[in-house]
Amino acid sequence: MREVQEARNAIKVYDQFPQWNPASEDDLLTAHRMLMTALLDAPGQYRRRGVGVFGGGKVQHIAPPTHLVPGLMSNLLAWLDSADEHPLIASSVFHYEFEFIHPFEDGNGRMGRLWQTLILTRWKSLFADVPVESLVYARQSAYYEAIRESSSKGESTPFIVYMLEAILEAVLDCGETDQESDHATDQVARLIEGLQGGPRSARALMGALGLSHRPTFRNNYIWPALDAGLVEMTHPDAPTARNQKYRLTARGRAAAGLITKK
Length: 262
What we know:
The protein is mainly α. It has 2 domains: about 1-175, Fic-like fold, CATH 1.10.3290; about 180-260, Arc Repressor Mutant, subunit A, CATH 1.10.10.10.
């Protein structure tokens, strides 16, 4: 009966999914209340007692004291609202910090996965149909290990790597098209054309594309091209390097050929 109730709650949650703001505390609490109705005594409220994460027969993580939870969550949501990081990174950082805080008595894992999907969907609507949550749930032991490793190191990097791998697998499992040009929006197609002569810096690309607004270049041109595997950095280990340039991948060169034929 509990599983039936969980399924009913999840259906209600996803019916409301399109209207929520990832940075809204009210929406977060409303989502938890809907997700945990009839499963908790006080759904939609931050926990009032200490909790820990258990796995493999031992304690994996002890969450912060209850009196710190409201402030920690307020800070986390404020950070998300103004974060400059790429949505794939920002959503993963939020997910990890959310699990570290463990703000609710129960349902934290489901809420963390749900909220990361919400953040990604606000960036790209296709994520509403990508089963990230299901894939993470299916790899739960690795999920908790990534949380434990991040907590041990005092940084979210291991968890980010885990989540990016899970997201990639989920996207691929959805069945990507074999037509590389399907990824090429008008902006990305222009970017690809601008890189056919060889690697170019962001400044040079913006000049060639007639752009002066860096956020537009970043959000509509370079990030989508990087995400689609059409473009790569010449110095991927140092994204902010002064001599950073961008070049076409093998997939990008193939897409350039298709665009040229059109």
